Amino acid sequence: MEHPIMYDEHDPVLARVREVALALPETEERLSHGRPWFHVVGRPAFAVYGSGTKGPEKVMHPHSVVVHVDDDERPARLQDPRFFVPSYLGPRGWLGLDVDGPDTDWTEVAELLDASWRRSAPARLLR
Question: Sorted alphabetically, which InterPro entries does this protein's record hold (predicted)?
Fold first, then answer.
């Protein structure tokens, strides 16, 4: 069964996330599970646009970026109320950050995307 599209193609926040993510070397966008996923070509994903939490207090975060963070950064990030543990990917070390507010720090978003990209990129790109 195909997943329904869970984002608006004309979303200006998505456009900004795309601008930052697709500026990284050899990056492509693919649609999966109804959401835009960003990959280093031929490699696992390093970011997803939009997510939610599961459990009794399920919360949707349609304008968020989900990234894979380093294990040593995870505890500090979880102390920050802007971050959330996304469904399915959270147990694998991923965290989400809402990026639709006027106070969004796009430099921080770029740094998070870059760090997650580095976890996925092959050594030849990291050199």
Answer: YjbR-like_sf (IPR038056), YjbR/MT2646/Rv2570-like (IPR058532)
Would you say domain 12-120 falls under CATH 3.30.499.10? Answer: no
List the domain boundaries for the chain: 12-120
SS3 of residue 33 by DSSP: coil
If you search the block for the tokens 């978003």, which residue do you land on? 109
| Digit-coded pLDDT (tens) for 69-109 | 999 999 999 999 999 999 999 999 999 999 998 999 999 99
User: Are 85 and 51 in contact, with CB atoms under 8 Å apart?
Assistant: no
pTM, rounded to two decimals: 0.95
